[in-house]
Design goal:
Rossmann fold, alpha/beta, 18% strand, disordered N terminus, globular
Length: 274
């Protein structure tokens, strides 16, 4: 009995002694001519058998920034250790919706998050340079952004997710969330609101297969648009995991949801032997 207790104690001590490292770096955007900060969480290197690891890109929501996830859900440091992934939290701007604006050339967040940030991370960290070793997810605006970017850049991302995402821009209030600044008004530029919405982008299907997971709380104001996305994916026969559970548009919900999504991505990486 004492031997079992000692073994359990040593196991718990070994796990708790792991310490993920957190970097805050500035990543320059050539497309926008300026730098943005980014949090990079690396699992404890002593616990890794190989130096190169898969990466999960974790996007913030509207009015948020690069530091939201690490400050609001600090457990992601332990999750990086547990699932042996590098977690990258880039800055997507206050209200970019992760889109390259067709009207304002100074707003190029699709290019920045979809191309420039991964290129920087691969150049400066021990990553596996393979689309099947990259996943992207996010909350709210970032939930839309993650699916938007992965479908349009499936050559770079192999798995994607979303938490409480605003999946249909036409369902959002017209004068809120800054979308009109990026896409224009809904009269003269109504087509932008349609063609940049995830619920319509999926119709073209990705060039490469994606492993997809998204979820939404049943009390969330984005619940209907997530349910509609789920039904449309079913009609298009695009495989995906969709979860609905009690919860609202809140950090309590996202702090719980991210645990399931990271497990989902870890399973995907394992399937591909990463």
């Amino acid at each position: 009995m004492k031997t079992k207790i000692l073994s359990l104690f040593l196991l718990v001590t070994a796990i708790s002694s792991r310490a993920a490292t957190v970097d805050t770096v500035s990543i320059f955007s050539k497309a926008m001519g300026k730098s943005f900060k980014c949090v990079v969480i690396q699992p404890d290197k002593k616990a890794e058998k190989t130096p190169a690891l898969p990466v999960v890109y974790l996007l913030h929501g509207w009015s948020g920034n690069y530091a939201n996830w690490i400050t609001k859900v600090p457990v992601i440091k332990q999750l990086a250790d547990q699932y042996r992934v590098i977690i990258v939290c880039p800055d997507g701007g206050y209200d970019s919706w992760y889109i390259d604006s067709p009207l304002d050339p100074s707003l190029r967040f699709e290019t920045y998050i979809g191309t420039e940030v991964p290129e920087y991370i691969d150049a400066h960290y021990a990553t596996i340079n393979d689309r099947k070793a990259r996943a992207i997810t996010g909350l709210s605006m970032g939930g839309h952004g993650a699916l938007f970017l992965s479908f349009r850049h499936s050559d770079r991302f192999g798995a994607c997710g979303g938490m409480s995402g605003g999946m249909d821009l036409n369902d959002l209030p017209r004068n809120r969330f800054g979308i009109n600044k990026t896409l224009g008004d809904t009269v003269q530029h109504a087509d932008n609101w349609t063609r940049f919405s995830v619920i319509n982008i999926i119709t073209g299907q990705p060039k490469n297969p994606l492993k997809i997971i998204f979820d939404c709380g049943i009390d969330d104001f984005y619940y209907d648009t997530n349910q509609a996305l789920h039904e449309k994916l079913l009609s298009l026969k695009i495989q995906h995991d969709y979860i609905q559970r009690p919860g609202s548009h809140s950090w309590d919900y996202w702090g719980n949801a991210v645990k399931f999504q990271l497990l989902f991505f870890r399973n995907y990486f394992d399937e591909n032997k990463f």
